[in-house]
Design a protein that fits this description.
Oligomer: single chain
Strand order of the largest sheet: 5-4-3-1-6-11-12-14
Structural class: alpha/beta
Number of strands: 21
Distance between the termini: 51 Å
Radius of gyration: 24 Å
Shape: globular
Helix content: 25-40%
Number of helices: 10
Strand content: 25-35%
Largest sheet: 8 strands, mixed
Length: about 450
């Protein structure tokens, strides 16, 4: 009897250690960190035309960060990095990703480097290149990634989708009007900036023309994508948030550095969930603004109102976060596909150089268990983002706009027929919407 009990106990111990080894091998690990990049000097802000914003910043209302989320499946690692700035040029993004690879060992192809596209934050442009903030920027990004690596530990994950209406479609269909206001008071204005005049002229608008403004009846993507990350003990560790909306509640007349609504959202989340560090990636926000934009539709810049906007969506994130049940990742393997989707250029671009009729658009798709991240290096219209998310056939799909480069707007084919700011600004031909979505579908087939 005693011998049989010893034998059973020995078998149990073998099974236990075998399971522990197996679970260790296949358990997803995650680490998250943030580094304060709030400047102490006066800097030039990005996002708007310098005709209205020719002077450097005049104050600070809130903190800016670079945030990094690193995953490890015991074989490979990936990093999602988001900086509270307007954006990275494609050349800067490539160089910084190479530097991160060299310094951390995370493969270049597994690095998603994004910006939240904050229009009330400093720019990495040449007008700030002699500042200490600029000189330390890359070091701060590296520190955030290295700190996230140091924070790696086995985790459980879960997801959910919330809903928010802090966003509004910004493609305004005009009526017949005569006004002293231009179509975009944040670029060219008769009341401020270099075009200010004591003798303004009436400007004619015609019915059916599309301009930048507020379109409360227009569509948006109201989904708030949320990933909850817990320690194995069940204590919350991190939250990833995805939502499609320009951080432009503060307009070009504002010269105060602000984290914008998205920064205040994370600030609120971390206050309500003290154990949690948050990271936000902007989605397909090319045609989506906040409900109000300083300088448009009679709105004035208000730092407190911007904070309230962030707190509103923050409350939804906290509510949904607290309903999520986390589990071990059933398939913790980090799967990454990188491809160039070839898109045709607009006719006027081809006429400038007939030797270049297409452009290679770099896209990254990252899959971990039921979660998929897909980058667009610029500003994707929300309807294309919704098509892409639907095509993943995954429970939780996130569009990482402004990720791994800057190639401008990708409007819908229908928007090209309507005209307006984004179709005029884009370099891509109208058919690019369909080609891009088909390209994403081909990439996704390699993830399964």
């Amino acid at each position: 009897m005693k011998n049989s009990q010893l034998a059973l106990a020995f078998i149990f111990l073998l099974q236990f250690f075998a399971f522990e080894g197996l679970s260790s091998e296949f358990t997803l690990r995650a680490g998250i960190a943030k580094v304060d990049i709030t400047p102490v000097e006066s800097l030039y802000l990005g996002g708007y035309d310098s005709s209205l914003r020719g002077d450097p910043s005049d104050g600070i209302y809130g903190k800016l960060y670079v945030r990094s989320l690193v995953f490890d499946d015991n074989t490979s690692r990936s990093a999602i990095i988001e900086a509270d700035i307007t954006g990275f040029s494609t050349e800067y993004s490539i160089a910084l990703r190479r530097l991160i690879e060299d310094e951390t060992g995370i493969p270049y192809e597994n690095i998603i480097l994004g910006s939240v596209h904050n229009h009330a934050a400093p720019t990495l442009g040449s007008n700030n290149s002699e500042t200490e903030w600029y000189r330390q920027f890359n070091n701060n990004v590296l520190k955030s990634v290295k700190d996230a690596i140091a924070d790696l530990e086995p985790v459980k994950i879960g997801g959910a989708i919330g809903t928010s209406y802090i966003a509004m479609n910004r493609r305004k269909r005009m009526e017949d009007t005569l006004s002293y206001l231009t179509f975009d008071e944040n670029n060219s204005s008769q009341s401020a900036g270099v075009y200010k005049t004591d003798n303004p002229v009436l400007i004619r608008e015609m019915e059916g023309v599309y301009r930048l403004g507020s379109n409360p009846k227009g569509p948006i993507d109201p989904e708030v994508g949320i990933m909850r990350i817990d320690k194995l003990s069940g204590r919350p560790k991190a939250v990833f948030v995805n939502y499609a909306c320009h951080p432009t509640s503060l307009g070009a007349r504002n010269n105060t550095i602000s984290p914008e609504w998205n920064g205040h959202m994370l600030e609120y989340i971390e206050e309500m969930l003290p154990d949690v560090t948050g990271i936000f990636s902007n989605g397909a926000a090319g045609d989506i603004n906040p409900r109000f934009v300083g300088g448009l539709e009679g709105n004035v810049d208000c730092l407190e109102r911007t904070a309230q906007l962030g707190q509103e969506i923050g409350r939804e994130v906290v509510r949904v976060f607290n309903t999520i049940q986390t589990e071990y990742a059933l398939n913790p393997e980090i799967k990454v596909v990188n491809e160039n989707i070839v898109l045709p250029l607009k006719y006027n671009h081809v006429m400038r150089d007939f030797r270049q009729t297409t452009l290679d658009l770099p896209v990254t798709a990252l899959k971990i268990d039921e979660f998929i991240w897909i980058t667009y290096p610029g500003e994707l219209f929300h309807e294309i983002g919704q098509q892409v998310k639907a095509s993943t056939h995954s429970r939780y799909s996130f569009i990482v706009g402004y990720g791994n480069g800057s190639y401008g707007y990708l409007p819908t084919q229908a928007a090209h027929s309507e005209g307006g700011y984004e179709p005029n600004s884009t370099r891509f031909a109208p058919i690019s919407e369909k080609i891009f979505v088909r390209g994403i579908e081909r990439m996704l087939s390699k993830l399964y």
